[in-house]
Amino acid sequence: MKYFTFFKRIVTFEKYPLFRTVNFRQLLMNIFIISLLVSLPNIISLFQTVQAASGIGDIESEVPDFEIVDGEYTGETGILSAGGRKVLFTGEIAAGDTEEIDDDIFLGFLKDGIYIKDVQNSDFGYSLIGQVKNDEDLKTFIDQQTSSLYFYVMVYSVLYILLIMFFAVILMSAGNYPLHFAAERMRKKSRFMNWFKISSFITVLMLIPIVLIALFTGSGPWWLYFLSLPFYYHYYRKLPVMKT
Question: What's the distance, CA 45 to chain centroid?
Fold first, then answer.
């Protein structure tokens, strides 16, 4: 396919001027892939969290006794293994102190709110699940919502990817315009859209190893994107010089 030919041209430093022939459909595909790659760690983490929450129903007898009083957790502290993931119950850690939570905890019922690894923040208070007042309510709530949880995750994932696509366009535009401007100042026949097109292919190539490393190690080495500089420099060199 011609689409994959452009990736070959990047890594082999061949026919760079022909990136001007990239059509809108191919460009849109790149933006979608970029957004999907950026979103993937959080989406996978959310699926794992939902799996852990769903697994609580299988170990109902092990859920600590607790109550939600005036929006705060009161009761026993404990860690459960549910759905292959760990769930924390504690009234000793506030939602704003999530740095105290171990990295293997995917879901936490904290003093003043619910923690979801890599997704939620301290604004997720117990008021959002007002029907849950104690451990028995939690078991009932999970039993009722399990069938819908994965649907909610799918909707969230789609909206999240669309949001990332929006910001990807803005950030890539902001990053490529200075390159286009600098090339023009150096008397090169530069076109902003061509910079944007080749940047989309370069970004896809760079994100693949970055995201794979993030999935396996838990941290994304975003500095690896600096390895793309030779590709941008080579494209700059291929730009024709303006006639005086």
Answer: 9
| Type of residue at 212 | L
pTM of the model: 0.73
Task: Tell me the mean pLDDT in the region 113-122.
Answer: 68
Tokens of 145: 């919502």
